[in-house]
Amino acid sequence: MEVETRYEIDRTADYIYAHDFTRVALQFPDELLKDSTRVVRALRDKLRELQRYDDGEEDIVNWRKDVALYVMADTTYGSCCVDEVGAAHINAECVIHYGHACLSPTSTLPAFFVFGKASISVADTVEKICIFPLSRSKPVLVLFGLEYAHAMDAIKEALVAEALRLSDSTSKFDICCADVMCSALDPCNGQMSSNRHVGILDSLPSGRETSDTKPNTSYSIGGLTWSLPYSRRMEDYLLFWIGYDNPAFANIVLTFNGCEIVRYDPMEHCLETDVSPKTRILKRRYYLVEKAKDANIVGILVGTLGVAGYLNMIHQMKQLVSKAGKKAYTLVVGKPNPAKLANFPECDVFVYVSCAQTALLDSKEFLAPVITPFEAMLAFSRGSQWTGAYTMEFRDLIYSPSFQSQNEVDEPRFSFFQGGYVDEQDHEENGNDGAQDRALAITTDKALRIRNDPDSLAKVTPKSPPEFLATRSYQGLDINHNGAAPKPFLVGRTGRAAGYEDERNPKNENM
Fold first, then answer.
1. Sheet strands (E) in 332-419
2. Is the pLDDT of residue 15 over 70?
């Protein structure tokens, strides 16, 4: 497939030209970086062609021919999110995002998405939808990876033709297809633009009339959106996923864990009907929730600096942790890994605030568990119980009424790690006394005495962040050590590469 077609050069150039952007950041994931130079060349040629067509004269030169295109790679966080941090380094006016995307709303910059066009057999896909799901006598909801959005119109047309063929038979044909939520985001205007309407395939003749007068219920997840009749629930549908076994699919499985789900692999042309390994992840997550309840110090990991609402979520997590009588760290470490988080051994658990498709970390190799904001609310809200519902998107949890204090009840809970029931009220009071009072009691002189007296290290049981810092053998560079600032010194060489100051000039020696 040519670069112009695969990367939608015409549509991208029209977007840049229509919005008068002069500095554009092109964000590529690692697997598409090899095509970046060809994309830039084709995009620049198309922008010049649009200018010549608009002006009518090829010799007219203005700013539109000088649109600066910058290629971004090695994103700050997940490649599915718009990297506003990287784009800010070059003062970009917008970001063109290539490849798989989570379509999380941006904070400051407008973004345009090019999902790519993965190969898929429309006939085989429609055949799989009609044979297996319809044999289960359940309505079908078709979801898909965004890389297959280009083929959904053809799939819908084939499904309409199949519905017309079966309209006179006794077979039930009740199918709903999702569509892409948007193709561009503009946080300044609060707008999401899309090329087509999203919703139920109303053109499919199902052979039954509906008397529902209430509006349809809308759903959205991972950049997809759809509507269902008011009288139906998600659990009534069989979910048919078209795409890979990736974080987007995991988000679907965990969020709609009460639905029957099958996955169609367009590359292998096969159906995966057993997704139980994915659903077993919930048992692991429940174990981490119970373990987090016994935490004393909680690290809040900043996993995004661009998704709208991330600051509100961080503040909400701080308030939640403080109300539970625990101490909170706020950490910005980029993409987390076991080596980075091992620098904070005092943290008993980490809460990872990020987009839904990067939030679920396998923390088996980490020294402390890594949980999501939803799991943190379950762990740190007194009296909350897991009903089986699961939410990956933190924007759905901001000031969630289901976790308000009036719904909390004072009752003991069973701790697997303490081997008995724990009174949450006592835990909160002890936590406040242990974390906050001890932090205030530790002075600089006491910390220095602990650091300089190796024998006292064995006598101290750290319970708060200042105590952990005082007992560390290395605490970083102390510019005010012993009351004297360090003297400035030069590292490296001064001058120009043509002749540093410490080098002799051969020309001067010969004169």
1. 349-353, 370-371, 413-415
2. yes
Q: Residues for the chain: how many in total?
A: 511
pTM of the model: 0.76
Q: Which two tokens stand for residue 320?
A: 């939640």
Token pair 């300044």 is found at 188
Residue 5, number of CB atoms within 10 A of its CB? 11
Q: Transcribe 292-309 into DSSP letters.
A: HTT-SEEEEEE--SSBTT
| pLDDT tens, residue by residue, 88-120 | 989 999 999 999 999 988 988 999 999 989 999
- Tell me which fold the domain 3-114 belongs to: Rossmann fold (3.40.50)
Residue-wise DSSP of 79-147: TTS--HHHHHTTT-SEEEEES----PPBSSS-EEEE-------HHHHHHHHHHTGGGGTS-EEEEE-GG
Q: Are 204 and 167 in contact (CB under 8 A)?
A: no
Question: Which letter, b or e, does each residue of 476-505 get, where b requires 16 or more Cβ atoms within 10 Å of its Cβ?
Answer: eeeeeeeeeeeeeeeeeeeeeeeeeeeeee
pLDDT tens-digit series, residues 379-437:
998 777 778 788 888 888 876 554 444 344 444 444 444 545 455 444 444 444 444 44
Domain 281-427 in CATH: superfamily? Diphthamide synthesis DPH1/DPH2 domain 3 (3.40.50.11860)
What tokens were used for 394? Answer: 């933190």
What integer pLDDT is reported at residue 393 of this predicted model?
87
Cβ count near 349 (within 10 Å): 27
Q: Give the CA-trace dihedral at 371, 377, 380, 386, to 10 degrees.
A: -90
**Do 292 and 317 touch, CB atoms closer than 8 A?**
no
Return the higher-pLDDT residue of 205 and 256.
256
- Exposure pattern of 307-324 as b/e (b: 16+ CB <10 Å)? bbbbeebbebbbebbbeb
By DSSP bridging, strand 270-272 and strand 297-302 are unpaired
CA distances from 306 to 137, 185, 334 (A): 43, 13, 13
| 51 vs 171: CA distance, rounded Å | 55
pLDDT tens-place string over residues 69-87: 999 988 888 889 999 989 9
Same topology, domains 3-114 and 281-427? Answer is yes
Query: 254: helix, coil or strand?
Result: helix
Q: Give the confidence band of 36 by pLDDT, cuts at 50, 70, 90.
A: very high
Residue-level pLDDT at 487: 65
8 and 114 Cβ atoms separated by less than 8 Å:
yes
**Would you kindly state where each structural domain of the chain is located, as residue ranges?**
3-114, 122-279, 281-427
pLDDT digits (tens, 9 = 90+) for 483-507: 566 666 666 777 777 777 777 655 5
Looking at residue 164, what is its pLDDT? 76
Mean pLDDT of the chain: 78
Q: Tell me the β-bridge partners of 221.
A: 224
